[in-house]
Structures are given as C-alpha cells and as structure tokens.
Design brief:
The complex is a heterotrimer of chains A (135), B (245) and C (395).
Chain A lengths: L2 H6 L1 H27 L24 H22 L7 H4 L6 H12 L24
Chain B lengths: L2 H27 L15 E6 L9 H10 L14 E8 L7 E7 L7 H5 L5 E3 L5 E3 L9 H5 L6 E2 L20 E2 L5 H4 L6 H8 L5 E5 L6 H8 L2 E2 L11 E4 L2
Helix pairs in contact in B: 2-6
Chain C lengths: L12 H27 L14 H24 L7 H24 L10 H4 L6 H24 L3 H27 L11 H28 L5 H32 L1 H12 L2 H23 L1 H4 L2 H28 L8 E6 L12 H24 L14
Classes of the chains: A mainly alpha (135), B alpha+beta (245), C mainly alpha (395).
Chain lengths: 135, 245, 395
C-alpha cells in the first residue's frame, strides 16, 4: 500500500486522527483554558525573604533561583559517592528557608515540577509540626 | 582511492568506532576510583565480630542501627528491613543443642555482586571499600537482592512511617537498601552506631577500623587471631570478619 | 507463488467482544501497576526473600515466545520456503508484540517506574545483564519493525537480510535473558546451561504458539488453509525442539546431582515441594513428554486437533518452566554456614514460600490484554493474514 493511498483510506485516517487528537488533548485543554480566561491567571508566585540564620546563602540569589537543583544534584553525588560532606546540605537549608510549603511547594506547584526530596529527607513544617510522608 | 588507502581509512574508522563502543566500559571501570579531593582514598573499612562475647539475648546493636538509620520495621517478616540481624546457629554434628548467636550484615565485599549487577550504578563500592546505595538513582529492580548470596539486601515494599532520626534520611518505598557501615557517621569521624552501642553495653564484641592501617585494632585482630569470613570460597572477599565462628 | 494478504473484516460480535475483554484487562493491569507504584510493591506477593515473582517469570516467558515465531518467519525469509510465506507476516508481528510484552512486564515490576526512563540511560552500568538486555530487546523490536516493513513491501533482498539478522539477534536476546539468572551467584541459578536451556524452551514454546495463532486466525476467519503446513510445523519442528529441551533439562539436573556441593539444592529442586510437582507434571510429563509422543506418533501427529492440543500443552509447560527458573532459586536458602543449622532468626532464613497476589495476576493479565488487543487491531488494520494458505504442490 502506497503512503498516498494509505492516507486516503478512510478507516485508517479515522484511527490516526483519533490518535493525534488524543495526544494533543492535554495541550489543547490548557490552551483553551488560557484563551478563555481572557486575562490569563498567572499563578500567584511570590518569593519570600528567608529567615536570617546564616549571613548569606551558599551561592548568589540568581544562581540559587535557577540552579538550586544542579547544586543539590552535585552535592548529593559528592556526599554519597566521595564522602565529601561539607556544610552545604539539604538539612541545613531549613534553617533559613523554614517552610517546605512556602519555599518549595508553592513554586514547584506553579511550575508543575514534581518534588522528589521529602519522601526521604526531613524538612519539617513549622506551622504543623507533623512530619509528612510521601512526595 | 587505492587499496592501501582504503585499508588505512577503513582501519581508522573501525578503530574509532570500536573505541567509541568501549567508552562506556572504560567509564564504568573507572567508577569507584575516588574523585580528586575525596577523603576516602587509602582507607579500607572493616569489622571484626567476636562471637564468643556476643550475647544471644542482647539487641543493643540491632536497636541502635534501626534508630540511627530509620530502618523500616512493619512487624511482618515479609517486609521488615534488617541492616543487621541476628541468627542463632547449631552445629549439625554435635549432640548437644548448644546454640550460638551470629550477627549478619552486609559484608561489604571487595567483589560485590550487587554493584556488578546494578543497572544504574546506584549500588556502588566507594573508594574506601564500603558498598553504598545511592537511593536517588535506584529504580527498584531488585536485581541486587537476587545477586547478593548473603541475603543482606532488602527492599522497601512499604512506606516507612517511623522517622526516629531526623538528621538522617529515610527511604521511600520502591528502593533497595542495605547496611552502609554508617557511612554518614564515618565521614564525620564517628564510628558506626552498632559499634558504639555494643561499647555502651560494655560488651565490646564489635571492632571497627581501617584494614589498610597495620596498627589499627581490626588489622591486628585479623593478623593475629583465627578470624573467618562467611563463605570465603565464594570469592566475594567480605570485609566483615568473625572470631569464633 | 502469489500470496494475497488482506485485512480481516473485524465486524463480527466475537471480534468486538474479544477486543473489549482484552482492552478491559489492559486497563485493569495499568490500574494495578498504578496502585503498586503509589502504595508500594507489598501489594504483590513478593517478599524480601523472594524479590522476583510472577512478573519476571511472565517477562521471560514472553521473550521466549517471540523466538519461535521468528524461526517460522525465518523459514520463508532465510530458506525461501515459499509455502511458509503466508505465516511470515503474522509471525513477525507476534514476535514484535511479545518482545514489547516482555519489556512491559519488566517495566511494571520496578519499584520506581518513574525513574526507569531516565536513570538507566544516564548512568549505564555495562556489567549488568539488566542494562544489556533492554538494549537487546529494543534492538530486536526495531529489527522486527524493519522486517515487517520489508515483508509488507515484498522487498526480497531486504527480507532475506533482516530475517537473517533477526534470527541471529534472537539468539543473543535469549542468551542474554538466560544470563540474567545464570550469571548470578545463587545455587540454583548459577549454571552455564541455563541460557541454552532457555533458548531450547523458547524455541518450543514459540513454535507451539505459532501453530495456535495460525490455526486460530484461519479457523476464526474461515479462510482456507492446508493442514499439512501446520502438521509440518508440529511434527519435525516442535517435536525436535521438545527433545532438545528435555535433553538440556536432563543434563542441567544431572549435573547438580553429581556434584556433592549442589546435591542438596538439586534434591530440593526435584523433590522439595510444590514446585517439584510443577516440574514433574507441569513441565516434564504434560509439557514435554506427552506432546512429544503425540507429535511423533503418526496417527495423532498428522491430525490438526491433536497437534493443537499438543501445542497448548507445550505453551503451558514452558510457562511452568519459566516459573521454575525464577522461584525455586529464591525460596531455596543460600548455605551461609556449612555444617551448621540456622535455628532462630528475625528474617525468614530457611525455605520460604511465595504466593501470587491478586494485583500481580492483574498486572500479568493486563500485559496480555494489551498485546492481545494490539494483535487483533493489527489483524484488522494491517494486511497480516493471507487469504489462503496452500502448499507448493497444491498450487
């Protein structure tokens, strides 16, 4: 069967169209919502000042804002594989960035980036002292 | 292009492509060499367990380990995790029913089968000889548990709800784990939790130290006493030695 | 000989019913996998002593099934046996589907399914059979697709080349799958004969499946088929594969008995519990010997219903064989203290048992549903099945 005849085949065409529509559905859905909202509702993400426990953060604010995940990935390799345990660690972050909710979740939810840290690492909520499990 | 030139160029292409194929092999062989600036180089941690001192009703080291490393306990034999566990064994030939306790933990083999089979290099032999699991990488395939002939590796079938030591991470469900000689304590110049617990009970059945240092307690014990390793004939070269096995 | 291929009608009630059942099974399997990845693998029957269970057994079973189909396909592709041309497309398509089923089974068995798509590529460990095998499997799927394309377009030379490659690659795939177990220091796993025995059982189960699939397709659609084709697949081919399987199994177990150090493990495997019943009755008697006799005896071996019956027995027997590769090696404890008996412990130290859980069965059925659905859709939308299958002489 030639490609041109295959494209003209009605049944095959229907199946392919349904597949493409299914694949594009999520994109179409958010695009439609964006268009319908008129004044698009940008998630209200604002940054808060951390508590002054240390004088300064380990890196500049600009670096931390966009590359904190790279830093975390680097130190975790150094920690586990090379035994280079410096003072930079996720456990120490919480001294200034006191709340997981305000300093991690809010932004990650807005950007739809799944956090995989707190199933294993302890990062308490100051409001409710209960430690949460799960992601 | 004449024949000679063709052979030359073809050979170069062949050599180049085979080199490219060999690249992952080289990088993986290189994997457990310490990075520059790592404090691990030159050390080789080992443990000696004196079974004649170990008491069958004492669980100090087991409890200390569970508390220090947030090891999961669901009170169900199928899913409990034991980084260190105690079994009692009885001589099949002897007439009396005398039992003796044996502590079993990860042997931190020199040739770890678990690290060899891990598809993502999550289980890994550090430069100081400790076999650690990088839980960030583990995909939970459980091939390491198949490969470990000592049954010293465990899988988190269930989420661990207890979190006694918040300075140390726990493990979410879906990753494998085993004893790591309390690597986080060693890096802070402390000794493993089980060794300290044994000392606190004034039993002193566990000795821990650097096997590369001839003056360390463990090296002297290994050199002078009749120490044994579990199933030395397997060629895994464990670094946990037993006195009086 | 000109062979006409055409899509099947696919409008009858049984067709829609079968498709619906398979689709529901597939969805149930996906849901069960979701539950396991959300709540933990304790929903499966696996434990810390038996960390691999039904899903891995099913995975290696599917991988094995793909082999025989390729051999049948190769009869036309490599040796140019034109009378097997009618079966070639179905065989190649099924081989591809079963490889995908094997990959799906392994995938759904992971503790962290979300990481499987990233970590093995970024941190490849070439010494692990588990990272070599997925490369072999996906390469296999890829070659199958090229082969199918060559078959659809009737490209003679390309068919020959790809069919040859795919048969060679299949040997690599199956040896690699056997090596997952054979290269591991466990008493009942560690045997250099395991990969060959895996290949032999794979060939018999695959040939049996090919017989079943072809008879089902031709009888189901009412298209004419010459019985001699199926009988030839059964009588020399499947029967010879069965004898090979029996031979390798015999050597493997005899070897365990002759060495003093593995005699106890050999005894455990052959006479040590429920799995031994599976071995003797499921695999040896009903899975190998009875089908082999049925095929070799002229009267039963030349009648299609008997050949189909024998093929069913073989497929089930090889499913038992796969289960017996994985489970007994795990429930048999490693001998840590030779001469000593372990009396008290916190963990299951001695011989343990493994029971399959509902969710695991659902996962396995789900994989089966997905590929069964894909097979039906393939029949409906691709010209896989020939309008008739005749022998050369009849044409």
């Amino acid at each position: 069967m030639k490609l041109s005849t295959a494209l003209r085949d009605k049944k095959l065409g229907t199946v392919v169209t349904i597949l493409i529509v299914l694949m594009l559905l999520p994109f179409g859905f958010s695009a439609a919502r964006f268009a319908l909202a008129g004044d698009p509702e940008v998630p209200d993400v604002f940054l808060e000042m951390p508590v002054d426990y240390y004088n300064r953060c380990v890196e500049d604010t600009d670096y931390m804002r966009f590359h904190h995940m790279d830093l975390l990935k680097r130190i975790r390799e150094e920690f586990i594989r090379d035994g280079m345990r410096g003072n930079v660690s996720l456990t120490n972050c919480r001294h200034c960035h006191t709340s997981r909710e305000r300093f991690c979740n809010r932004c990650h939810e807005a950007a739809s980036v799944v956090l995989d840290c707190f199933g294993c690492h302890y990062y308490p909520e100051p409001d409710s002292e209960s430690q949460q499990t799960g992601l | 292009m004449d024949r000679r030139e063709f052979l030359k160029k073809g050979g170069a292409v062949l050599a180049g492509s085979s080199g490219a194929l060999g690249l992952p092999l080289l990088t993986s062989c290189d994997a457990n060499v310490a990075r520059e600036g790592s404090p691990l180089a030159g050390r080789k941690w080992g443990m000696v367990i004196d079974l004649s001192k170990c008491q069958s009703d004492c669980t100090a080291c087991l409890d200390a380990c569970r508390h220090e490393n947030n090891v999961a306990f669901h009170n169900d034999k199928r899913w409990d995790v034991h980084w260190i566990r105690k079994v009692s064994i009885r001589n099949e030939e002897s007439e009396d029913d005398a039992e003796k306790p044996v502590l079993l933990l990860c042997n931190h083999c020199e040739n770890p089968p678990c690290a060899q089979v891990c598809p993502v290099q999550a289980t890994y032999k550090r430069a100081d000889g400790i076999v650690v699991v990088d839980h960030h990488r583990c995909i939970g395939c459980r091939y390491c548990m198949i490969a470990c002939p000592y049954n010293a590796r465990f899988f988190n079938y269930k989420e661990n709800e207890e979190w006694p030591n918040t300075d140390f991470p726990k493990r979410s469900h879906g990753v494998a784990e085993s004893c790591n000689f309390c690597a986080h304590r060693l890096d802070q110049d402390k000794r493993p939790a089980c060794v300290e617990a044994c000392e606190a009970m004034d039993i002193r059945a566990l000795y821990f130290g650097n096997l590369n240092d001839p003056d360390s307690e463990v090296s002297e014990l290994v050199a002078s006493e009749p120490v044994k390793r579990i199933r030395d004939d397997w060629g895994t070269e464990p670094k946990v030695y037993y006195l009086g096995l | 000989m000109q062979v006409e291929f055409s899509k099947i009608e696919g409008r009858s009630l049984p067709f829609y019913l079968a498709a619906a059942v398979l689709a529901v099974l597939g969805i149930a399997g996906v849901y069960s996998t979701y539950l396991m990845s959300a709540h933990g693998l304790y929903l499966s029957g696996m434990t810390n002593r038996v960390p691999w269970g039904l899903q891995i057994s099913m995975a290696i079973f599917y991988i094995g099934l793909s082999a025989g189909s390729l051999v049948v396909s190769g009869l036309y592709g490599i040796f140019g046996k034109l009378e097997y041309k009618p079966f070639a497309r179905i065989a190649a398509y099924l081989a591809m589907l079963f490889l995908i089923a094997g990959l799906l089974s392994i995938l759904t068995d992971q503790g962290r399914v979300d990481r499987v798509f990233v970590k093995p590529f970024t941190y490849l460990n070439v010494t692990s059979m588990f990272s070599i095998n997925p490369a072999l499997y996906s390469g296999h799927v890829l070659i199958c697709i090229i082969y199918l394309w060559a078959l659809f377009r009737e490209k003679g030379a390309l068919t020959k080349i790809t069919s040859f490659t795919v048969c060679l690659w299949a040997i690599g795939t199956h040896t690699g799958t056997g090596a997952i177990f054979a290269f591991v220091p466990r008493e009942l796993y560690n045997s250099a004969l395991l990969p060959p025995s895996f290949v032999a059982a794979a060939l018999s189960s695959g040939a049996a499946l090919m017989i079943l699939a072809n008879v089902a397709v031709f009888r189901g659609t009412g298209r004419p088929m010459d019985d001699r084709l199926v009988i030839w697949l059964g009588r020399p081919l499947l029967a010879v594969f069965l004898v090979c399987t029996l031979y390798v199994l015999l050597i493997e177990n005899a070897h365990r008995f002759y060495l003093a150090e593995s005699r106890e493990a050999g005894m455990f495997f052959l006479f040590g519990g429920f799995h031994s019943l599976m071995f003797w009755f499921g695999l040896i008697i009903f899975g190998c010997i009875i089908p082999a006799i049925l095929l070799f005896v002229r009267r039963t071996g030349t009648s299609v219903p008997w050949v189909v019956f024998a093929s069913c027995l073989v497929v089930v027997g090889v499913l038992f064989e796969r289960f017996l590769i994985v489970i007994p090696g795990l429930i048999h404890p490693p001998e840590l203290f030779p001469g000593w008996e372990v009396t008290g412990t916190v963990l299951w130290e001695g011989i343990v048992d493994y029971s399959i859980s509902f969710y695991e069965v659902l996962q396995a059925l789900g994989v089966l549903g997905i590929i069964g659905f894909a097979f039906l859709m393939g029949l409906k939308f691709l010209p896989l099945a020939p309008t008739e299958a005749k022998t050369w002489t009849a044409a």
